[in-house]
Amino acid sequence: MGYGTRPGTLGHTIRTFWPDDTDTTMYIQTSYCVIPTLADLLQKIYEKWPGASLDNIEISAEKIHTDCLGYDLYDAGDYTDFLLITKTNGA
Predict the structure, then answer these.
(1) Has residue 28 been placed in a domain?
(2) C-alpha separations of 33 from 29, 30, 36, 61, 66 in Å
(3) Whole-angstrom distance, CA of residue 32 vs CA of residue 60
(4) pLDDT at position 71, please?
């Protein structure tokens, strides 16, 4: 989705961002109450990259600023938790 906007209060426009998957990366939104199981992750990995091996998959956690971009004050609610799954050229 990339960058976008949504209506705010008092006629303001709020800038937003949502990361896009690429040929070598996949973003999976998570939260403290909804965490995918390993089986769910493996299914998504093998659907996107058939024949992939765990030797060339990296999984990391990312907290990405997705809402109210450009505002000065920190607000934890403006960030979204993701699992970033990357396919490497590894082993």
Answers:
(1) yes
(2) 11, 8, 10, 15, 19
(3) 15
(4) 80
Whether this model's pTM surpasses 0.90? no
Cβ-based neighbours of 13, under 8 Å, separated by 6 or more: 5, 6, 7
Range of 47's domain?
20-87
Closest CA to 53 of 24, 23, 83, 91: 91
Distance CA 55, CA 71 (A): 41
Considering the domain boundaries, does residue 13 fall inside one?
A: no
* C-alpha–C-alpha distance, residues 27 and 88, integer Å: 15
Per residue in 18-43, pLDDT (tens digit) is 999 999 999 999 987 777 899 999 99
Phi-psi region of 43 (alpha: psi -120 to 50; beta: other; left: phi over 0): alpha
At residue 63, what is the residue type?
K
